[in-house]
Write a structure and sequence with these properties.
256 residues, Arc Repressor Mutant, subunit A, 6-stranded antiparallel β-sheet, two-stranded antiparallel ribbon, 8 helices, 45% helix, 19% strand, elongated, disordered N terminus
Amino acid sequence: MAASDKSASDPPLSALLKGLSVLEAVMSNERLSDLSRATGLSYSTVHRILSDLGEGGWVYQDEERHYHPGPKMHAIAGLLRDDAKIVLQARPHLERLREATGMTVHLGVVHADEVVYAAKLDGHGSYRMLSRVGGSVPLHSTSIGKSVLARLGDDEVKQIIQRTGLRAITPGTHRTLGSLLADLDATRRRGWAIDEGENEVGLRCVGACILDAGGRPIGGVSVSALEFEMPVSRISSFAAHVTEAARGISASLGAA
């Protein structure tokens, strides 16, 4: 066997990085030889990775044995395009919210029973939160997530929690379905959700749900701060700004 066909000749990349490099190469290369050349990996390694990716729906092979992005890659690309559109529409509202409150602002979109941060604007203070764009957090422990859950019926919430469980992120995270449902009931009455150190100790967050053109809850917007920066006496004031931003974003997305 030629040296180029031996896996031992491949550069010392992890299996994950090899798979990602092949995925990236499939975007602009179709033939096995071209994929091997583009990634610097041996034929046998590329072929093995493509077989695994094909079984998972990430790539497919046509009748001429050329490789193409599969349905899962197209699905993710579609989600990214949708999120980018939401961020574009939301940006002016997020900036106004930060100016009005001085606090860190998050825009989160729900994917696969989690909140994925699509945008983050740091507050004016010196403290920088651990959250990052692209990071995901549970629905039950965040103000954005709870604002979305509050838009659903209790039966649907129960189904979601059956799938996800109530993972304890901090000592303040809901540990029983009953306590979560009571919180969601209060959220519905107020029109906004609050996270009292449930996802990160020492932080207080206020969030409100955003709706798409069909009136469906797709995510939310929030402000977050250290507890002393958002005292209980000012929560209602922050909530008014957050709900105004959520209504504005929803309207920009076509919600009635």
